[in-house]
TrEMBL record:
Gene Ontology annotations of biological process type: methylation
Methyltransferase as UniProt keyword: yes
InterPro entries: Cation-dep_OMT, SAM-dependent_MTases_sf, SAM_O-MeTrfase
Keywords: Methyltransferase, S-adenosyl-L-methionine, Transferase
GO molecular function term, any single one: O-methyltransferase activity
Descriptive protein name: O-methyltransferase/MSMEI_4947
Length: 202
């Protein structure tokens, strides 16, 4: 067994939303990798997070997992695809966390949240817009908030130098630029080789 697989197994916990997980796998719905999910939940627990903002709901899988960490957590999640939104709504309504998760149907590039404040931001939407989402939604965070960005390795594309497809090359360049910008910023950052790559920003 490779060391990376050994660590991945250690970091993977028993699935508590098996039906949603299996639906995602069977229908090729992108969800957070199991080992990365466990790491994010650990950060939420250690930090004592109470107000979470998630960019990119998909079918509600990660939102329910995050809400499961503590009964004190309230979560707002934004999804622009109507079909995914309806699936997420159904999944969350059938979960124990319906009263603590607020779903918003809309484009995260346009949604406004008024005077809401959050102590945790999870960015897991279109990867080419990571910088935009970071800049827009950091204004809704408390001073000591934690930010985690998923898929910063874009399934290995991030380290490919020869990319024939123009769109993939453009995506790679945008994510590379974002990662480097965060590394060079005033924020404290950690790039974790777990799942498809997690960027932790404090």
């Amino acid at each position: 067994m490779e060391l990376s697989n050994y660590v991945k197994e250690l970091n993977t916990q028993k699935e508590i939303f098996e039906d949603v997980y299996l639906y995602a796998k069977d229908n090729h719905v992108p969800i957070i990798d199991a080992d990365a999910l466990n790491a994010v939940k650990q950060y939420i627990k250690i930090k004592g997070v109470k107000r979470i903002l998630e960019i990119g709901t998909a079918i509600g899988y990660s939102a329910m997992h995050f809400a499961s960490v503590s009964e004190e957590i309230k979560l707002t999640t934004i999804e622009k695809d109507p079909y995914s939104y309806e699936l997420a709504k159904s999944n969350i309504e059938n979960s124990p966390y319906n009263d603590r998760i607020e779903l918003i149907l809309g484009d995260a590039k346009e949604v406004e949240l008024g005077n809401k404040r959050f102590d945790f931001l999870f960015i897991d939407a279109s990867k080419g817009n990571n910088q935009f989402f970071f800049d827009k939604y950091k204004e809704y965070l408390t001073d000591d908030a934690l930010i985690i960005v998923d898929n910063i390795f874009i399934r290995g594309l991030i380290v490919e130098d020869e990319v024939a497809n123009k769109n993939k090359r453009k995506l790679r360049d945008k994510v590379r630029t974002f990662n480097q910008t965060m590394k060079d910023s005033e924020y404290s950052t950690s790039f974790l080789n777990i799942g498809d790559g997690l960027l932790v920003i404090y």
